[in-house]
Predict the 3D structure of the following.
Amino acid sequence: MTQALQGWGRYPIIRSDVAHPAMTSAAQDWVARQPSGIAHGLGRSYGDSALAAQVLKTDRLNLLLAFDPATGMLTAQAGVTLDEILTGFVPRGWFLRVTPGTRFVTLGGAVASDVHGKSHHATGCFSECVDSFRLLLASGQVWNCSRSENPELFRATCGGMGLTGVILDVSLRLMPITSAYFDQVTYKCPGLDAVLDRLAETAQVTYSVAWIDCVATGASLGRSVLTVGEHATEGPLTPHGAPKLTVPFDPPFNAVNPFTIKAFNALVYGKEFKAVKRSRIHYAPFFYPLDVATHWNRLYGKPGFTQYQFVLPMAAGRQGLRTVLTRIAASGMGSPLAVLKVAGAANDNPLSFPLAGYTLALDFKVQPGLLGLLDELDALVLGLGGRLYLTKDARMSEATFKQSYPRWAEFQGVREKVGAIGRFASLQSKRLGLD
Amino acid sequence: MQRPRILIAGATSGMVEAAARLWAARGARLYLLAREGERLGPLAADLALRGADMAGTAVFEAEDLASHGALVQQALAALGGLDVALLAQGILGDQAAAQADAAVAVREFNINALSMVTLATPIANALQAQGHGAIAFISSVAGDRGRQSNYVYGAAKATITAFSSGLRNRLAPHGVQVTTIKPGFVATPMTAHLRQGPLFVSSATAGRLIVKAIDKRKDVAYLPGFWRLIMAVIACIPEPIFKRMKL
């Protein structure tokens, strides 16, 4: 029996045969049985990277396997979520070393996307805190992968979008904390230069992110609210609660339109009335402001949306960012807010997204004319030496991918050695010419 | 209740694991009975990592009715007593096979009905003797009225509903609570092949509702509560009409 399956952007939608193995042996049976398929965690990648006609959902590979309180080393199955890890380990004084902007992702997904967060410039991607994992190969064999054991496969799997095999379990290092709170400073920045200056000034702070108004033009182009912060040393070790809000169904009207976008941005920007504000806040609003509402992706209505996240190398600098932002603002199609971050140096994983520079992420509701605009943006981004994040992508072309991820052939070489080509495939991998 | 001692039979279903995790987070002492050996040990380790004071296990064959008395004694000894027993073992069954071959129906009855009786009887006697505790049975809305599409399963669950009702009546004066839990549709591996719809709840939600029903010492808990209304309506349909319906 097939079921409709979609990524977080709800575009595209595919009918899939979904398996829920509860044991390694059942996952091995699935691999032996399927000519081709892909692992799927919580479906929080935005596009089609976890979509295929045959899908292995990791929701039953959800056991914690071991924890060493002396070192903070946690071993857990691939379907365990960051949400569960925080719930269980914050009260004991442990936190994730790297977290993306939602806690509703699985460990397997975090590795396969080599996710990054507000600390990328300081800590790098998720793989930096991963010591090893076990990978189920197309042959049915299970291999340990680490920086010393099968290192090529380790690097190809981190950021490899599930295309090397099925990640069964992951050993990662947690970091000790003495408080669940963060000391944050919020800066109101009236334009692009102001926010980039502030980002440069605060480069020593571990966590930083700017919410940038993509609709503002002219002198206000790039006006932002920049938040930087560090773990507080004092405060209780209280874990987060369950989401309080939900969007229970698609709104019957167009909820994200130029009017609501402008109103929303004026509200967000206006709210930070002081130019500089210091506060202490819990990690949940600090890292996961959107997790307060489940199914917020429904706000974009039935057509769905795509998130466009690109990185531009430092060399492309301000002028590059200004060029792309100007084009987005002129299109009138962008989302209320975009997220601007400084990315640190690229790592050695062939398909990991970040490279030293600026990364910007924003949503586009699926609408007529969008694909043309995005192709145009691709050309701008690639012309500036940048690239797009595979985890957000639902539509980039094979040529765009191969030009901007020059190590794709090396990645294919690793896949070929372990028989993964053709056996682990998604709609995305087929589109990008990885078969 | 500090460090409640809890016995769970049929521990490796999604909703029961979800309930066990909530108890683990309270620091409970757990003893798990389940068929699947490969998952049972890792599940116990998982529950210990999530805060369980203890997570013992024993492999449990629901069909092997004669073994159940000894398993209960073993669990009680390991836990050092008992506060709560959750009896949740079961299979969805295959109606077509069960109506073609009585042996299949008998096997389903052994697993879904009689294994509950063989576990519950020594547990009930132990709790009655100590004068406190709780037993929760996972029955089903399917036990409220037999339907052609799954009456063998439904009849086994009806046995549990009536058995637990009688046991509740017997144990009430002794301070022991018996809870009959009737899930509707829970999205579990057992129902993965059925179509998911608005009547389905996730196994995480189901697990939370099981723990809540036991905490509140409910007599009969539909899961979720709206099934009480649905089943009340279904119960009202006169048999001459009901027998002609495609259900």
